[in-house]
Amino acid sequence: MDVIRRMRPALGTFVEAGTHAGAGLPALDAAFASLDLAQARWSFQDPGSELSRINGGDGWVPVHDDTLRLLRLARSLMLASSGYFDFTLGGAQVQRGSLPDHGGLPALERGAAHDVELSAGAVRLRRPVRLVLDGIAKGFAVDLACSAMRRAGARSGWINAGGDIRVFGDIELPLALRGEDGGVRPCGVLRNAAFASSQVAAERDASFPADIIGPIGLAPQQGVWSVLARSAWRADALTKVAAIAPADVRGALLERLGGRLA
């Protein structure tokens, strides 16, 4: 099958989109347009994003339907994982200097799932927490971009957003795993599935900027944590669960949550 591919910066990384030649550039254009919308809505760094409006809001904040979907997924996974995945840690990450401080009232270091109240078309925070979606939003954006490609006529294709990957249709994409030493090793192919990796390094690594914080009393474990799942949002989020969960429960927990270690 002849394929076409394009690469451009998006979501704080370089993103490659590809599809069969018959779908043409319109499918790739649709993918990148979808990714641009995701970045505009869910960036913590952008003080004008929907996420920043939620974090700085007083009362109900109107948001896009996709933002509501993302927050529902994040809240549900936080509950299902017993807090190993936590999207209320923006206050702690601001204090650590890994995220910018946009001002406003002092924020709690961490919150709880019930601090986030969702209704039709709007979000409200019950307490002064700062939501951060970096652990799930890139994967969710990849899923939306794949859906946009399908709507534009792509029968098959892929998105690779800096290692958050989803493949759909009859394309098989070669997969490689990155080790702590920076080397890569082949790991078969990816077809109709998603893959994501997160690294916990002994020291901060600019090539893996994620700041993973565990529940009180649990620190993330050093290593490169790679997860396979059906959807990219799930693979993305479960890399954080894999990094934090104790070794004796990690495999079973990931399986219960819909993923597995790669």
Task: Describe the model.
The chain is an alpha+beta fold and 262 residues long. The protein has two domains: 3-39 and 143-261, Roll (T-fold); 45-125, Orthogonal Bundle (T-fold), CATH 1.10.3980.10. Helix content is 33%, strand content 26%. It is built from seven helices and twelve strands. It has helices spanning 24-42, 50-56, 65-80, 90-96, 137-151, 232-244, 247-256, and strands at 3-10, 13-20, 61-62, 116-119, 122-125, 157-161, 164-168, 173-178, 184-190, 193-200, 223-229, 259-261. A seven-stranded antiparallel sheet has the order 1-2-6-7-10-11-12. Strands 3-5-4 form a three-stranded antiparallel sheet, covered by helices on one side. Helix 1 runs antiparallel to helix 5 and helix 5 (137-151) packs antiparallel against helix 6 (232-244). The two termini are 27 Å apart. The relative contact order is 0.15.
Provide the helix percentage. Answer: 25-40%
Q: Could you give the distance between the termini?
A: 27 Å
User: What's the structural domain tally?
Assistant: 2
Q: How many helical elements?
A: 7
Mean pLDDT: 93
What is the total tally of β strands? 12
Instruction: Extract low-pLDDT stretches.
Output: none
**Helix/strand/pairing category:** alpha+beta
| SSE order | EEHHEHHEEHEEEEEEHHE
What fraction of the residues are assigned to beta strands by DSSP?
25-35%
Largest sheet: 7 strands, antiparallel
Oligomer class: single chain
CATH fold type of the largest domain: T-fold
Rg value: 18 Å
Shape: globular
Strand order of the largest sheet: 1-2-6-7-10-11-12
Q: Considering the protein shown, what is the CATH homologous superfamily of the largest domain?
A: ApbE-like domains
Indicate the CATH class of the largest domain: Alpha Beta
CATH architecture of the largest domain: Roll
